[in-house]
Specification:
By secondary structure, the protein is an alpha/beta fold. Helix content is 45%, strand content 16%. Strand 1 and strand 2 form a beta hairpin. The longest helix has 17 residues. The N and C termini lie far apart (45 Å).
Length: 275
């Protein structure tokens, strides 16, 4: 079933003060993402780096059951080819992924403001990795995570094989990916996959509470902290020292760094500007 609404209604962006709320709203396909919606998400995260309209983002979805089940498998990719060329040629899938989903996940990981995933229901496959690529994950007690690929004879993608070992370790990653069992919210919390579980009806309030705290903090410091942490597991010690020194140097020239030192000297609460 297709969704004929404007894409801005399917992937909503709303600014509430300093918080950008990004909502997946595609009920006809259970919040699965087709390429246009995936690309809109990517473009939103890139926009947040330069527009300075928000100092934190919340990624969530409409509905009580599904956050995102992954890619929209009802979407038909049209190839403009002559009749003598087969529909599938070696290299097509790789190229399509590099130009598609692998532009979305770097946009989330490299976004310069904190991103909170507020997971309202099932997050499966690429949809699970969409949440896990965010900096913080709050989920409803109705949520569950599913590494669904093995159920369909597929290879995990959407940066799952990179994200999960870094969050929960290799052994637990292999268990989730090979068995493809549902992972309830409570178990996800126990193994460190998510930060917090709240009753379903309190999800928006909990996400708002954390978002407001972050939106009133030193945004450039947060962005550099995020960069350092994301670099850390792929970087040797010498390079990490250089990265930390660079981050400190850059942060020293921000307005908030000056405010932090001034408020300490004057024994008052800082007033963070976000730049």
């Amino acid at each position: 079933m297709t969704d004929d609404r404007p894409i801005e209604d399917q992937i909503r962006l709303e600014f509430r003060g300093k918080i950008a709320w990004i909502t997946i709203d595609r009920p006809q396909v259970g919040n699965a993402l087709d390429p246009p919606c995936r690309d809109r998400l990517r473009d939103i995260f890139k926009r947040l780096n330069t527009s300075h309209e928000a100092r934190v983002a919340v990624l969530t979805a409409e509905g009580d059951k599904l956050f995102c089940p992954g890619a929209d498998l009802t979407h038909v990719h049209q190839q403009d080819r002559s009749a003598d060329i087969p529909d599938r040629v070696v290299g097509d899938a790789r190229r399509m992924m590099l130009d598609g989903q692998y532009t979305l996940f770097p946009a989330i990981l490299d976004c310069e403001i904190p991103i909170i995933a507020a997971v309202n229901g099932t997050a499966a496959g690429m949809g699970s990795h969409l949440a896990l690529a965010c900096d913080l994950v709050i989920c409803s007690d109705r949520a569950k995570f599913v590494e669904v690929f093995a159920r369909r004879g597929l290879v995990p993608d959407a940066l799952g094989p990179w994200l999960l070992p870094r969050i929960i370790g290799v052994r637990r990653t292999m268990e989730l990916m090979l068995f493809a069992d549902d992972l309830p919210a409570q178990r996800a919390l126990e193994i460190g996959l998510v930060n917090r579980i709240v009753p379903h009806e309190e999800l928006a309030a909990a996400a708002t509470e954390w978002a407001e705290r972050l939106a009133n903090g030193p945004t450039r410091s947060f962005g550099l902290t995020k960069w350092l942490v994301n670099q850390s597991l792929d970087t040797d010690r010498r390079t990490m020292i250089e990265n930390e020194a660079l981050a400190v140097e850059l942060n020293m020239h921000t307005v908030d760094s000056e405010e932090g030192l001034a408020s300490f000297r004057e024994r008052r609460a800082p007033e963070w500007k976000g730049y």
